[in-house]
Amino acid sequence: MYRQNPEYFIPIGTDPELAKMIRHQRYINAREHYYTVPYYDNLLISETEPDIQQLALWNALARMKVSEPKGYALLTNFYFGTYRSVSSFAKANGISRQAMSRKIKRYLRFLRIIAYEELDRGILKTEYGERNFI
């Protein structure tokens, strides 16, 4: 049995066009909230304590440069380059958007694995003390 989502409930007697616009706006807000990544730029991070996750990411990128140079080049060109979308990056490389998206996801997965290994390594934990950064 279908149960209507109470967030989308519109009072009875509302003009159908207005109800349609209200439901659509609520849908847009929910979708935007789902796909929005919070960015905390106003957090005070002291300069004396290095960010352990950033160190792990840079170490992972250095390891990836040695072990997977094609993936390293692709990720750095895409994220640090001037490309605005996957489509424009794929067009510049002469492949389809879907193929480029798969490559980026595959290399990001590989980078994530290396970064988590870096976080789990004892070097980072002992070098900067036992802190709970995640």
Largest sheet entry: none
Contiguous low-pLDDT stretches (5 residues minimum) are: none
SSE order = HHHHHH
Structural class: mainly alpha
**Total helical segments:** 6
What does this structure look like?
The chain is mainly α. Helices cover 64% and strands 0% of the residues. It starts with 15 loop residues before the first helix and ends in a 7-residue tail after the last helix. The mean pLDDT is 79.
Topology:
Layout: H1 16-35, H2 52-67, H3 69-80, H4 86-93, H5 97-120, H6 122-127
Helix pairs in contact: 2-3, 2-5, 3-5, 4-5
Key traits:
134 residues, mainly alpha, 6 helices
Concise structural overview:
The chain has six helices and no strands. With 134 residues, it is mainly alpha-helical.
